[in-house]
Amino acid sequence: MLLLSLLVAFTLYSATPLVQSHYNWSPSSSSSSPSTFQSEWRPARATYYAATDPRDVVGGACGYGDLERTGYGKATAGLSTVLFDKGQICGACFEVRCVEDLRWCIPGTSIIVTATNFCAPNYGFEVDGGGHCNPPNAHFVLPIEAFEKIAIWKASNMPIQYRRIKCRKEGGVRFTMGGAGIFLSVLVSNVAGAGDIVAAKIKGSRTGWLPMGRNWGQNWHINADLKNQPLSFEITSSDGVTLTSYNVAPKIWNFGQTFEGKQFGS
C-alpha cells in the first residue's frame, strides 16, 4: 500500500510536553459520547500507516511537531484535500467508525481523532485506485494503532463514517513561540471546543491588540518587536467563540518556549 502524505516539519517550532498522550474512544452506540459538533454521519474511507512511519515525529502539515511529545499521541488523522481545507481544519476533532464490512469491522466501536496532517493527492492514480486522497474523495489516514480500534488491519482501505465533534483536551490552550528578531510565529495547539482556530491576536504590555496572520497550519505570525513584554492572546475558533488569555507569557520570554492559557469549553 502506497500512501503519500505531505509532511511539513520545521525545527523552528519545538513544543514542550505538558500532558500525556492518550486515546479517546467510545462505543458508537453509547449515549455518553462527547457532545456532537456535527451530528450528521458522512461517508468516507480510511487507510493506515505503520508504527515505524516517521510522520508522528515530524508532526505533519499542521505544524504540531512531535505528536507524542505534544500530547496528541496516536489519536490523530491525516485528511484528504476536500477535508483538509488548506490547513484550516487543523486541530478539529472527528468521530470515526467502520461500516459496511462485517468481516473486518469491530462492531460497536468508534474512535475520536484530531486532524494533524494532510494526505496529498497522487494524480498518477485514479480516485478509485491508488489515488485514495485525490479529490473528490473524503479520506482519513490513521495510525495503525487507531485503525485497529475499529477494524482488522488486513482490511486496509476501509469504508467508514465520520462526524465532526467538539474536542476535549487536558489543560489549557498552548502557545509555542517561534521566529527570530521582530518576526514572531506562534503555534496554537491543544485546543478544545471546535478545535480549529480561524483568527488570532496578540498584545504586549506596551501595545494594543495586534492581528496575526495564518502562516501555515495553526502557526500564526506577526512582524512586531514584542520582546521584554508580557504577552496576551485572543483566539477565535471556527464556531465563532473567542477566548482571551491575559499575560500568558511573562516579560522575560524566549523563542522555543511554550505557555499555557485558558481553555475553550468542550
Automatic annotation (TrEMBL):
GO cellular component: extracellular region; membrane
Domain (Expansin-like CBD) ranges: 182-261
InterPro entries on file: Expan_Lol_pI, Expansin, Expansin/allergen_DPBB_dom, Expansin_CBD, Expansin_CBD_sf, RlpA-like_DPBB, RlpA-like_sf
Signal peptide: 1-21
Gene3D superfamilies, sorted: Expansin, cellulose-binding-like domain, RlpA-like domain
Membrane topology: Peripheral membrane protein
Function: Causes loosening and extension of plant cell walls by disrupting non-covalent bonding between cellulose microfibrils and matrix glucans. No enzymatic activity has been found.
Keywords, sorted A to Z: Cell wall, Cell wall biogenesis/degradation, Membrane, Secreted, Signal
Superkingdom as given in the UniProt entry: Eukaryota
PANTHER family in alphabetical order: EXPANSIN-A15 (PTHR31867)
Subcellular location: Secreted, Cell wall; Membrane
Protein name: Expansin
GO process terms (BP): anatomical structure morphogenesis; plant-type cell wall organization
Entry's family note: Belongs to the expansin family. Expansin A subfamily.
Primary localization class, coarse: secreted
Any one Pfam family match given in the protein's UniProt record, by short name: Expansin_C
Domain Expansin-like EG45: 59-172
